[in-house]
Amino acid sequence: MIWVDTIVQGILLGGLYALFAAGLSLVFGIMRLVNLAHGDLIVLGAYLILTASTVFGLNPFLAALIAAPVMFGLGWLLQAHVLNRVLGADILPPLLVTFGISIVIQNGLLEGFSADSQKLSVGALDSASLALGPVTLGVMPLLTLISAVAVILILNQIFYRTALGRAFRATSDDAATAGLMGIRPRNVFAIATGLALVVATIAALYLGIRANFDPTIGPARLIYAFEAVIIGGLGSLWGTLAGGIVIGVAQALGAAINPEWQILAGHVAFVAVLLVRPRGLFPRAND
Amino acid sequence: MAILSLNSVSKSFGALKVTDDVSFEVAPGEVLGIIGPNGAGKSTLFNLITGNIRTDAGTITFDGTDVTGQSPMARVKAGIGRSFQIPQPFTHLSVYENLLVAANFGGGQGGREAEQLCVDILDRTGLGDLAEATSGSLSLLQRKRLELARAMATSPKLILLDEIAGGLTDGECVALIETIKSIHAQGTAIIWIEHVLHALTSVVERLMVLNFGKMLTIGAPEVVMDTPAVREIYLGIEV
Predict the structure, then answer these.
(1) Contact present, A43 and A218 (Cβ < 8 Å)
(2) B227: alpha, beta or left, given left = phi > 0 and alpha = psi -120 to 50?
(3) Domains of chain B: residue spans and CATH
(4) Which chain A positions have a beta carbon within 8 Å of B52's beta carbon?
(5) CB distance from B30 to chain A under 8 Å?
(6) pLDDT tens-digit profile of B133-169?
(7) CA distance A113 to A215
(8) Strand B31-35's sheet: what is its strand order?
(9) Spatial separation of the C-alpha atoms in residues B153 and B143, rounded to whole Å
(10) Burial level of A106, CB count in 10 A (0-12/13-18/19+)?
(11) Closest to B50 (Cβ–Cβ): which among A174, A180, A183?
(12) Which of A27, A104, A202, B1 is most buried, most CB within 10 Å of its CB?
């Protein structure tokens, strides 16, 4: 039964990876922008929550409610004033710019918060768990997975049930024609990046509660996010959730065999999925 | 007052003058046809009217406002709708969603009003049964219908149709003409670029001929088509 427990823990861990990846998937799906600073923006979100929590004496969940609109504004400004300038046929400029942003965020956080590890605490919930027969579910990992499913559900509702979502998808299809239909593509891109950073804030909340963080851990979160997005199929939000779960389960199984294999097992699963399905598990039909 | 007025509009790409001092007006509710050989500058003229291409000289006035410096988005919101020669639907959206985007953002309509408008347009353009189909899966005829339907969904005062009858069978063409006539009957002004002359002349009230970016002539279709220069240049008939 230990394997059942291991797989369940892997699925729960996958929820965190899906949260890391959802914002990345959103931005890539709409504007084909690969944001190399995504991991660092998650870490920035964690520090914002930490700051709001410390300054106002708030529970991290409440502090996240303050951080989320700040992150939305930051995402909007970043896209409107920096990233929109480099979007185009050449994919290199956005990569270079977001790589630069990554370095700026890391060094800014080091300057402002030092290299010391930080953690968000929610008191007894940190280590609370539910025993379900042979399986033990941590409350925070369970909340993480539930949040990931909720985020994907809400993003899907926005995408397929609202005018904004149709604008996202139309702009993703053909930004020039979208402009002729009365849509402002650059504004749509800015809203999308703002939304992606709200999702990043939720990821940051659970990252900060479940593990220590410091200014330099962003790039590793970016790798997990990338792998989840690519395993799931570019542009597919449910695929991103599945991708996160694949990595989470692989890591949990790897760690159960040998703790040193945890990280490696996730990367091996990524390569294995790509060998079998090069376009990911749930690619968009006519990409 | 004219709904659209072009005054000495010119455009060059390098040394090539694709629109050369073109001036004309379109009255509210009028249907104007544009003909000319390939490369005459017909689609460029549409791009200048919609704002996809900026003019080098001259002014474009729409509904009493100088729109020469306005963006394509501002012009569609002002009431200039357009279909493309090569259909450009949003391929990941359904047919119905393509229309909703146009109605929401181009026509500025929301909620039930926009939904009802789109359902009506789908019925009028023969796309009712394909409402939920992904537009990337449509045939050429269906895509051309969608182009027309999407332009209609922006609630335009002026609609620009770019070779919308090209590649259609006679039967399909007749159905398309009826749809265009129904748009005209509602009072929408139309400018229609077309090589299928019998389709064009069955609808338009005036005809304009372009050649090498210049306006050769404009007037009643039967008069224009009988002009020796038009017969020689456009139809290739020596006179």
Answers:
(1) yes
(2) beta
(3) 4-79+156-233 (3.40.50.300)
(4) 176, 180
(5) no
(6) 999 889 888 898 899 999 999 999 999 999 888 878 8
(7) 8
(8) B80-82, B158-162, B189-193, B31-35, B206-211, B214-219
(9) 15
(10) buried
(11) A180
(12) A27
